[in-house]
Every structure is written in structure tokens, then in C-alpha cells.
Design a protein that fits this description.
- The protein has 2 helices and 9 strands.
- By secondary structure, the protein is α+β, with helices and mostly antiparallel strands.
- The chain is globular, with a radius of gyration of 14 Å.
- The chain starts with a strand and ends with a strand.
- Helices cover 20% and strands 33% of the residues.
- The chain has a single domain, classed as 60s Ribosomal Protein L30, Chain: A, CATH 3.30.1330.200.
């Protein structure tokens, strides 16, 4: 949880998410990508997670860290994004509930990507179950698997 990883050609990035979001930002030409396991949309703690095992915890900070790391690998990258997760894990959650962390994560990530002009190519969000998420740096496919089966987006 809250991790962040960078991958290159022939590597895969993997995590499991419930209400959290797996965000994959990638360059399909250079076959590089970053994945963050986002738990919350914004860091309001006044403490950075950069350089720690929790770099992916906050959407605002995690996305910036991914962008910095991808920029180092390929300065002229044309980046795109895919996301999965944001489930309503608890039965008492609804769209207006303050505990709707998944929904808040989805909204936060959408806003950040729009602000940074990174197109969101596909998403598989919401529902009521956790998911295994695997991103292939080689072909930029996002495999999303739960007890109901697997989808590739």
C-alpha cells in the first residue's frame, strides 16, 4: 500500500487496490511507466513522502514523483494514464458519504490529470470489490482481475 514503482520495457508493475487507486502513467513510445498505489487524493500533512516507501500514498504527490522520475528516463515523453480501483468496500458507503474514499480518489486523480494535461486513456473504477492490477510496460495493457474475472484496459 502507498507504494510507487517505475518500470521499463519488458517489466510489469503490480498492486492490489480496494478503495485505493492504481494510477499508471506511461509513455508508449519509450515503453516506460510509473505506478502509484494512491490511498488519498491530497497530502495535507505538511510532511513529504518523497524518498520513502510511501511515495504513492497521496495522488497529488505521487503523480508529481512519477512525472519527475519518467522525465529523468525520457525528457520528451508523451505521457498517458490509466487507472483502476476506487471501490466502495464498505456496505454503508454511498456517493455522498464522507467515507467514500474511492470516489474522492477518483475525482482527485481526474482533476490532477486534467491540470497536467495528461490524457486518461481508460479506467475501471468503482464497484464493490478489490482488484489485482498489473501494468505491462511493453504493451501498456492494464490487467484488472477480481473474483468475477479479468479485464484488460
Amino acid at each position: 500500500m502507498a507504494g510507487l514503482a517505475i518500470g521499463e520495457q519488458n517489466q510489469t508493475l503490480k498492486t492490489f487496490v480496494g478503495s485505493c487507486i492504481a494510477i499508471c502513467i506511461y509513455d508508449d513510445i519509450h515503453k516506460i511507466a510509473g505506478m502509484a498505489h494512491v490511498m488519498l487524493p491530497k497530502n495535507i500533512t505538511n510532511k513529504t513522502t518523497k524518498g520513502t516507501k510511501l511515495e504513492g500514498k497521496f495522488a497529488d504527490e505521487g503523480i508529481n514523483i512519477i512525472l519527475d522520475k519518467l522525465q529523468t528516463l525520457s525528457p520528451n515523453s508523451k505521457l498517458k494514464a490509466k487507472i483502476a480501483g476506487g471501490a466502495k468496500i464498505f456496505s454503508h458507503e454511498n456517493d455522498s458519504n464522507t467515507l467514500n474514499i474511492g470516489g474522492k480518489n477518483i475525482e482527485g486523480i481526474h482533476a490532477i490529470l486534467k491540470e497536467k494535461n495528461i490524457p486518461l486513456i481508460s479506467e475501471l473504477v468503482g464497484a464493490k470489490k478489490g482488484r489485482w492490477v498489473t501494468f505491462s510496460c511493453n504493451d501498456q495493457s492494464l490487467h484488472v482481475k477480481n473474483n468475477d474475472g479479468e479485464k484488460i484496459i
